[in-house]
Amino acid sequence: MTDSERELLEANGTFYSAFARRDLQAMEELWSQDAPVACIHPGWEPLRGRDAVMTSLENIFGGGGAPATITCVNATPHVLGPYAAFVVCYERVPGGDLAATNFFVREGGRYRLVHHQSSPIARPAQPQGLKKSGPMN
Q1: 3-119 in CATH: which number?
Q2: Nearest to 130 by CA among 108, 102, 105, 97
Q3: What is the rounded CA–CA span in Å between residue 126 and residue 103?
Q4: Nearest Cα to 93, choosing from 50, 45, 41?
Q5: Residues in contact with 31: Cβ distance below 8 Å, sequence separation at least 6, in sequence order
Q6: pTM (2 d.p.)
Q7: Per residue in 19-43, pLDDT tens?
Q8: Residue ranges of the domains in the chain?
Q9: Which of 66, 91, 130, 131 has its CA 20 to 30 A from that of 76?
């Protein structure tokens, strides 16, 4: 695994850690300040723009809309060059698994999130080979 892939997985882990803690400040720091951002929560219409994304997270965190637990598993990093990368993973939430893609750009010397999309899958992810992905994986 390259240093860029490790750094990307760390940024991805930061997203899931902040989500699990309902930490809006950590989300503010992780999402891009300069590049256009978008987000598609499961079952939601696409959100476009930083303000819409941050407002959605604030509402989810404040209104109890966030799952009691969320775990990222089987995260696979894809570095596209010096400025862009994405992670494909599963999100384990109560009631089933979601498939997710998180897209990052380099901004201020680190990966910042510009797009998150997660959606239900027809069946649970296969347990073989799934591994928990945390801030350092």
Answers
A1: 3.10.450.50
A2: 97
A3: 24
A4: 41
A5: 37, 50, 53, 54, 112, 113, 114
A6: 0.86
A7: 999 999 999 999 999 999 999 999 8
A8: 3-119
A9: 66
Q: Which pLDDT band holds residue 12 (cuts at 50, 70, 90)? A: very high
Query: Residue written as tokens 């010096």?
Result: 82
Structure tokens at 26: 């950590």
